[in-house]
Write a structure and sequence with these properties.
Radius of gyration: 18 Å
Structural class: mainly alpha
Number of strands: 0
Shape: globular
Largest sheet: none
Strand content: under 5%
Length: about 250
């Protein structure tokens, strides 16, 4: 599979959004055809946009999707969630590894080191941005799975939206193995314990929680419950989860 490539492109896409790039710039170097995506949405949902900016009767917020790409499809909801608002925290996705590390440092209140990952015990693990080879691939796969589970926590993704999400991930360059895996994840039961079992280090656990926070709407009871379940399954202390959530909000 090529999970690390796809996660890297999603992080770049998120970085462009958090940096305030215009809709005309689209996804920049991610290779995602935003205009083509919108044309596809219009065809698949059978009509133009309604006056409120939603595509036909689908419930997908097409104006928001213009700036969201594959990330937008993961959180485009029948509730008309706005991708530029509080629900999707682009900055936290773009810098997930280093922000998770910073949150851990802050929660410890430890100013005795420079705060660099190289200063910590190897048992803590490294940020995903600093991994390579198979370690990066496996971490990326775990983080992609966490994003999908978080996006599904409120139950809004239907069969038509699953096809669109899979198609947009394919557009980022997913190979056949990753495509099949993605489709399985879009239909698998939500299981916080099974997801948490994928982490190989405390750093991986923090990243998994942070990227989940970045995707969910914390004001939604079902999504808040998913975060609580995941934090417990990952055995993260309350002060760490609180700091991770604070970092996600500040990263925007």
């Amino acid at each position: 599979m090529n999970a690390s490539k796809i996660l890297g492109q999603l992080m770049q896409q998120a970085g462009g959004q958090s940096g305030g790039r215009s809709n005309d710039e689209g996804a920049g170097g991610s290779g995602l055809d935003i205009k083509g995506m919108l044309d596809g949405l219009s065809r698949q949902f059978g009509g133009g946009q309604s006056r409120d900016g939603q595509d036909g009767g689908s419930g997908l917020d097409v104006k928001s999707l213009l700036g969201g790409g594959a990330l937008g499809l993961l959180v485009g909801s029948r509730r008309g969630r706005k991708l530029g608002g509080k629900a999707l925290k682009y900055g936290a996705i773009a810098g997930v590894g280093m922000l998770a590390w910073k949150a851990w440092q802050n929660s410890r209140g430890d100013s005795s080191t420079s705060g660099e990952p190289s200063d910590a015990s190897p048992a803590e693990g490294e940020p995903v941005e600093q991994l390579g080879g198979e370690a990066q691939e496996q971490r990326s796969l775990a983080l992609l799975q966490a994003m999908i589970m978080a996006a599904r926590a409120d139950g809004h993704i239907d069969d038509q939206e699953r096809e669109l999400i899979a198609g947009q991930v394919d557009a980022l360059g997913a190979d056949q193995e990753l495509h099949a895996w993605m489709e399985r994840q879009l239909q698998a039961p939500l299981d916080a314990e099974a997801l948490a079992a994928r982490v190989e280090s405390p750093q991986a656990a923090r990243e998994m929680y942070l990227i989940s926070v970045a995707v969910v709407d914390e004001q939604n009871a079902m999504e808040r419950a998913w975060l609580d379940q995941l934090g417990k399954a990952l055995a993260l202390p309350d002060d760490v989860t609180a700091e991770l959530e604070r970092q996600a909000r500040e990263a925007g």
